[in-house]
Each structure stands twice: as structure tokens, then as C-alpha cells.
Amino acid sequence: MTDPAFDALDVEWRGVSPRLAAVRRLLLCPLLLLAGLGVGALVLLLGGGGWAALPLGLGVVGALLASVWVGRAVASWAYAERGEDLLVRHGVLVRRLVVVPYGRMQFVDVTADPVHRLARLATVQLHTGAATSEVVVRGLVPAEAARLRDRLAARGEARAAGL
């Protein structure tokens, strides 16, 4: 389902790597399962008997729901380059579209923490003059992150030179 407020028709949207969903599932789902197991063990120790299985079951259901949610959230991330600006959209419940004119960019960061480096993923973050602006494209393969970084830097310099 397209929404004209969030789906510019004149651009080619690029999604992020599905490996980002795998990394997020790998980090989140075991935590939910361990939390359910821990609470279940505590209930068992306190003499809860048959109630001990309830937290574990809730942990399993939570992990399954989180897995689905993570997949949808990662699938919602996309970016598009236009002649004068970069568009970034994401969100499942609350959708967000950010449009950044190339001339407003001050610098571009590429980062990857150890887990994301292991999964061969990087994040590109744009910095503008506005204190509240946070434009991030997560889950890019390193080659695409480098391409986007170089392209944004070149376009930003070209627009800034005209000021």
C-alpha cells in the first residue's frame, strides 16, 4: 500500500540489507527468552509450581512477535537520492520521511560497531546545521555505505560551493 505523503513517485527507493533484521533478531530474541526463563525460574523457586511455565511461554511469544516486528521495521527503511536532496523513510506504526537538501549537509559519518562489522553492515549518518536533525541510513553493506558517503559528500560540496 502506497501513501503519497511517504512514497515519492519520481525516485527509486533503495532498501537496507536484510542482514540488519538478522542482527537485530539475534540481539533481541535471546534476551526475551532468557528473561522468560529467568522469571520462570524465580517463580519456581518461590513455590509457584505450575505458574513457572507462564513466563517462559510469554518469553517465547514475545520473541516470536519481536522477530516479526523487527522484520517489518527493517523492511520499512529505505532511502532515495534525487537531484537536489536525499530522502529517508522508515517506521511501522509511526512513519517518517526526512528530506535533506544536499546543500544543508555539513558532513557524513560512516560507522559500524563490532556486531555490525561481523555481519558486514555499516550505518551512514548525515549531519546538518540543525541541532535536532538526525538522518541515519542503517544496515548498508560496506560497499554501498562507501558509495553513498562519497556521493553525498560530492553533492554536498557541489551545492555548498554555490553559496
TrEMBL record:
Q: Looking at the record's lineage, which domain of life comes first?
A: Bacteria
* Keyword Transmembrane among UniProt keywords: yes
List keywords of the entry alphabetically: Membrane, Transmembrane, Transmembrane helix
Specify the YdbS-like PH domain's residue ranges: 76-152
This protein's record includes keyword Transmembrane: yes
Looking up InterPro entries in the UniProt record yields:
YdbS-like_PH (IPR005182)
Membrane spanning residue stretches: 26-46, 52-70
Its name, as the record gives it, is: YdbS-like PH domain-containing protein
